[in-house]
Amino acid sequence: MSVRILFEKNTYLNDVQEIPRAFFPYLDWDDNGENYLSWDYSTSGKTFIFNVKSDLWGNANYRCNIDEDDRIIFKKKSKYFAKSSLYDFLSEALGVSLPYGSLTGVRPTAMYNELVKSTSDPKKTLIEEYRVLPGKAELVAGCAEYQKQFINRDEKAVGLYINIPFCPTRCSYCSFISTEVFRIKKDLPEFVCCVQKDIETAFEIVKESGFRIRSIYVGGGTPTSVGAGFLSEILEPLSSCGCEFTVECGRPDTINEDIVNALRKNNVTRLSVNPQTFHQRTLDLIGRRHTVQDIYDAFALVQDKGFSVNCDLIAALPGETFEDFRFSLEEALSFRPENITVHTLSIKRGSELNRDKTSKKTGGEALRMTDYSFRTLNAAGYSPYYMYRQKNTADNLENTGFCRDDKACLYNVDTMEESCHVIGCGAGAVSKKLSAGGKITRFSNPKGLREYLERHSDVIKELKDFFLINT
Prior knowledge:
16 helices, nine-stranded mixed beta sheet, alpha/beta, 24% strand
């Protein structure tokens, strides 16, 4: 159903528009739609009035008394009320309930932590005031409570992120700025040299700022796609940091004995083997170009080598049923990795799936998959420890990392909860600087490989200035 959506833009209620977007494809936003949906608001003393109008579903007025003299808090509470009111209107009109109700942000745990300060039962508030389904409220609460033991509280702590934006092939769901590694082989020596200089600069920033390195994360892309030699050159300067040290191996077909030896030699503590699925037909369909046997071989190589291992799965992959997903989860559990991350398929703008006009799945099967994973992993001794949401995700769901034996990835927690400075190295890496009052500023390295290489001397100077000037 396509409608024109009309509202007063550039007010503090601007993000209320996220609510009708969340109902896609039940409701499609079309600037030329024949029908319309609009909203506005007014205040009368401490009463906030939110008005919704539609030529399809009629009009509705929602009122809330907000006994609050602080205008900033008044605006925050009225915004939440407006989003929940519009959600109620559309949910009733369309006959659809979304798993996260009127919550539209990336980090549901952030809302839970806010509610902890203002209500005695934040989980109940998520359900009753924000229309979150009970199972998802339980997931959010469990994640927020469990991760408290891992969240950084040291204002001088910093994470190092090294971005290696190359992969063996491009998956159909991927929208990262990454390149197939065979296309840039001639540039690899120069790229490695630049990353090494980035790392040197990072160490200078750490020393001059009095930072303490809390975690290192080497991601991409698939860092192991560059081969053991180049990878080891990047890892070696980091090998003596003595902190959590993760390498995103990702694609099982890039993991061999030389790679494992390079990781061990350089004191890597954590790695990822990411099957996404244990079905060959799906691997072929999404462009993975490796076999299910490669997954088993990769696990055999990394197990009992002293690493904490993560395993990624994706719910609602094209053509997969609930039974398909259940089989993949059971296979992943058979390896007893320290971490299992369950993603829900998101149709991202830059992905092949989006170019092929693939629509996000609705109807509840993805919800059934993620609910099953939560129950099954809990029963197997895994706890949710970080989570985030993306736009255009099947059944409007989430991505959740689970761990056993308290083997959480600190970098993941810090990133999702935005609780730690980050120094980014490599093409496309993003640095973050936290300031008093919760303000976060960012600096991005050039995304394109050629621009990163050509501008590198400027990049390292700008990176250093970002952290050291006006700090």
